[in-house]
Amino acid sequence: GENVEQHPSTLSVQEGDSAVIKCTYSDSASNYFPWYKQELGKGPQLIIDIRSNVGEKKDQRIAVTLNKTAKHFSLHITETQPEDSAVYFCAAANDYKLSFGAGTTVTVRA
Amino acid sequence: GAGVSQSPSNKVTEKGKDVELRCDPISGHTALYWYRQRLGQGLEFLIYFQGNSAPDKSGLPSDRFSAERTGESVSTLTIQRTQQEDSAVYLCASSLDRGSGDTQYFGPGTRLTVL
User: Fold this and answer.
1) Whole-number Å distance between alpha carbons of B53 and B65
2) pLDDT digits (tens, 9 = 90+) for A7-63
3) B76: distance to nearest CA of chain A, Å?
4) Helix or strand run (H / E) with residue A33
5) A64 with A48: CB under 8 angstroms?
6) What is d(CA A44, CA A100) in angstroms, rounded to the nearest whole number?
7) What does the pLDDT look like over B73-97, one tens digit per residue?
8) How many Cβ contacts (< 8 angstroms) between chains A and B?
9) Residue in chain A nearest B109 by alpha carbon
10) d(CA B25, CA B73)
11) Given the DSSP bridges, would you call strands B10-13 and B110-114 parallel, antiparallel or unpaired?
C-alpha cells in the first residue's frame, strides 16, 4: 500500500517568515495530493490540493509543489501569521483511499 | 450548509464495554469514511462506504470493530469489548462521490478513552 512520510515533525517560525513542509510517497499510481490543517479539538480541514497533472498550485499565501518523478510534494506558507499555528497533514491517494503523513506541528512566534 | 457532525464528542468507557460512535455526513454525499487518529499521529483509514455498502473494510483493526450505514446517510462505528489500545480520536469524513480528487470533509471527531 501507499506510504507517506512527512518532515519535519515540528516547525517553529517567526511571524512573517515562510514555512515549508515536505512529504514523500511510495505508490507511483497516486494522483491526488491534499493538504489538511488541524486545529486543536477540531477535525482536519482541507487547505489546498494538487493533482498529478499539475506541478504547482497557489492560493494566496499557500502554495504546493509536486515532483512526480521524485515522488515528493511540498507545502509552502509565506508571510506566516499566528493563526497559521496548527498541525498540518499531507496525504496521497489513488482512487478514494487517502494515506496520511504523520503531521507537522507548526508554531508561529509573534 | 451543515458540515459533517459526529457524536458524542467525547466518550469515556471501561475496558470490555461496547461503544457506538455516530457520524452524520453532509447531505447528498454518497461516500463516507472512518479514520482513527492516535495521539500525535496521522490518520489511519478504517472503512469506506459507497451508499450503504462497504466495499473496503481493510483498515478495521480486528473483528471487534464494525460499521454500518443506513439510508445512505448516518453511519455508526461499533467497537465491542473495548481495549485500552482503542483509545484515540475517531474521525468521519464524507465526499460527494468516490474517486481520486473528491474532497473529503471531516467531522470534529469523537475522542474515545478506554480506562
Assistant:
1) 16
2) 999 999 999 999 999 999 999 999 999 999 999 989 999 999 998 888 999 999 999
3) 18
4) strand A32-38
5) yes
6) 11
7) 999 999 999 999 999 999 999 999 8
8) 64
9) A43
10) 6
11) parallel
